[in-house]
Amino acid sequence: MYYLGTDLAGACEAKPYAWYSHQDDGAPIAPYHRSAVVMLVDQGFETMEGASGDDWISGAQSMRAYMRGGEICGIVAAFIRTLGWPARSQTNADSDVLQLPLVLLAGLGELSRIGELVLNPYVGPRFKSAVVTTDLPLQWDRPIDFGLQDSCSKCMKCARECPCSAISFGDKVMFNGYEMWKPDVERCARYRVTNPHGSACGRCMKTCPYNHEGLLAHRAFLWAAIHLPWARRWIVQLDDRIGNGSINPAKTWWTDLEIVEGKVVAPRGTNRRGLALDKALKPQKIAYYPAAVMPPPDAKQSFPVDRKAALTVAPESPAAARARKIERR
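^ thats the sequence. predicted structure below, dont judge the formating
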């Protein structure tokens, strides 16, 4: 994978909970491979530095990385099959597995405040993942802890900069049995598919302090963030002071175009956002859709959601969940 252009890679057990339960046509899925090889493709710091994160290039950068990941995984899976072992490419175009649990199990990052997104210490959230599942005997990597949970508890930059306030300003919650900062996924999805001044959105990725170029100075601060917990709040504040996450116009190389009624035209407007340094950091209401209110896994028809009811859901706190678990013992 490295030889073919992957930026980071790891291997892990393809645990049963990492597999989807059903195909999109309702057919059940039974886990069929023991291991997963997980790869990350960097979306590109140079281009992201010249973007706002929710302008017209963002969607193209995202799909470029997905396409590259699909290409590499297709080649690797085919190669493993020539060795006599079963293997399948699992990409954003067609996948029987959930990517995030496997990225975590392969030691390629930790879950971040952004929510349902893994953050890697070297490329931050600026990557797309792809997976090859296989029965080829592999030595599995292990999950990592580089202090991100504490860093994210001290940093709310992604939540502050989110254009639709979908990232939580509050504390972690228990959601479907997992401790996490749960985003308002419906609010996020609505903005991404209806963004009138850009293609999709990656503003959280663009402004995250871990989205850096990887220079020696950045590696020094990364080392401090990992090994010196007392320095994490100061590093987050410094990130704002030096303007990280701002748009560098010298890096804007593309021409914005939009297809309207079958014709390619220049967009009427394009998001070009500066940092919202003065935005109030107040916890907002998040719509929670636990598994019990989601569509059945074999549903083939549309399934309306009740947003008003979702806004009233009060998830359990991690502390309460731990206390309950101890009490049961």
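The longest helix spans residues 56-82.
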